[in-house]
Amino acid sequence: MHSNAWREKVVEGGAHEKLLQGIRLDQNRRFGDSVKHEPVKVRRLHNMAHSRTGHVIEWEDILIAHYGENWREKRDACENESTWKSTGAEFVRSICLKYGLPHPRNEARSAGGKDASSESVARETLPENQMTWPSIPWDNGSLRFVFIVDCQPLHRISCGVTPLLNDSYVPLFTRILDDIRDIFKEGFAPPRLVDDPVLWVDRGKNKMADYLCNVTMDRKKSWRKERSIDMPLDFNWFAVSDGGARPLCSACGWAVGICFVVDRLQKFEPLVVAGTYLEPRVNSFLAEALALEHATLEMKELMLRFR
Length: 307
Description:
Layout: H1 2-12, H2 20-24, H3 29-35, H4 40-45, H5 58-67, H6 71-76, H7 81-85, H8 88-99, H9 104-109, E1 145-149, H10 152-158, H11 170-185, E2 198-200, H12 207-219, E3 223-226, E4 236-245, E5 250-262, E6 265-278, H13 284-305
Parallel strand pairs: 1-2, 1-4
Antiparallel strand pairs: 3-6, 4-5, 5-6
Helix pairs in contact: 11-13
């Protein structure tokens, strides 16, 4: 349904014929609203389907439940089909929660609490030369979190320092900020109360996310792996994310994990490492923003699991 919503735009644009429009006989909510006050006789005369009950519009209800009545405006604001598809994971998650349906990812984890679609990886499979982390000044307490990026414009826009000038990115940044807001609602706070939830670091201090992004472009497919570790009693949450673009493709990579102190030294342990392959290609900034969106959603779900 989510993919068909973009195909409907293609039909409306005249690029293709008889796709979703042919399947649904143009029975969308907008058309239904425009003719619902016409007498049954008039509707039947003009060969309007379901003349007694009105046009079938239920197929849009699920989209309206997530995006609202103006879901087409939000769809049309997406730069391309890849941008629209990037909203699919949150769409599925939201609908499953709203109607009490089993989430596909959670269903896969049902066997022994593990994700059947991703393998549990040991520490040594992550290259040690990429396991570098910035020093983070955590305040006392264990209800702290931070998102680490190496794209300064992304950091400034996410933290409200710089305005977002491209309207097509508004839905994406709205989802990012909604996830961060939900994390605040769970009682978590940035490393220090004066800090922003998104931290900018130099690229050399974000090697893990850069590595995951490059691995995804090399593999030419999306992937996700969970790591099993012994959870300490006191820890804070962190996420690193990065996006990149090559001439023919793009990708984003992210890792979400915990930080705790061992012998007075900070120890970072990723719990989830993942990458999303983006084809057709998108620009580097969009790839960076999509990576941050994945990281915020992933962290929010992990927090709920380990509360």
